[in-house]
Write a structure and sequence with these properties.
Blueprint (H helix, E strand, L loop, with lengths): L3 H6 L5 E4 L5 E4 L7 E4 L2 H21 L23 H14 L3 H10 L7 H13 L6
Antiparallel strand pairs: 1-2, 2-3
């Protein structure tokens, strides 16, 4: 039988938002009514963990079905991307001028403003990619 410790180990999504009063309100979307308020974001993280523990305890005691979080989606790293022939040509020419493969060049463009990854991860990715450059179109 699954116990509180089992559910506490699962990776439930937690949302923490500032309130108009200057505090932080935390919720767990998959656990209706599981919420906490605290004065700081860090305190809200601790408080929501305590709230989850209590929520699981009551749910198990009351024989309430506990929804488990969705299994993390696996990403292949492959994206089908359509564009105009003119843009495709431009991107191929720019990647060649940069000495990068088209894939590496597109990755640099996508992550340039740190919109997807932190700066260190981007630099590591670019370094690894640059070390194994193979010019393709």
């Amino acid at each position: 039988m699954k116990d509180v410790d089992y559910y506490m180990e699962l990776n439930y999504e937690v949302n923490i938002e500032p309130t108009p009063e200057g505090e932080y309100f935390a919720t767990v979307p998959d656990l209706p009514g599981c919420m906490a308020t605290a004065k700081t974001r860090d305190s809200a993280r601790v408080s929501i963990e305590e709230a989850k523990y209590g929520w699981f305890k009551v749910a198990l005691k009351s024989n309430v079905e506990i929804k488990e979080p969705p299994i993390e989606r696996q990403y292949s790293g492959r994206i089908l991307f359509r564009t105009s022939p003119a843009i495709h040509r431009f991107l191929v020419e720019e990647s060649k001028r940069s000495g990068l493969t088209l894939n590496t060049y597109l990755n640099v463009l996508l992550t340039q403003n740190r919109c997807l990854l932190d700066r260190q991860a981007i630099e590591k990715t670019i370094s690894r990619s640059a070390a194994s450059i193979e010019t393709t179109t």
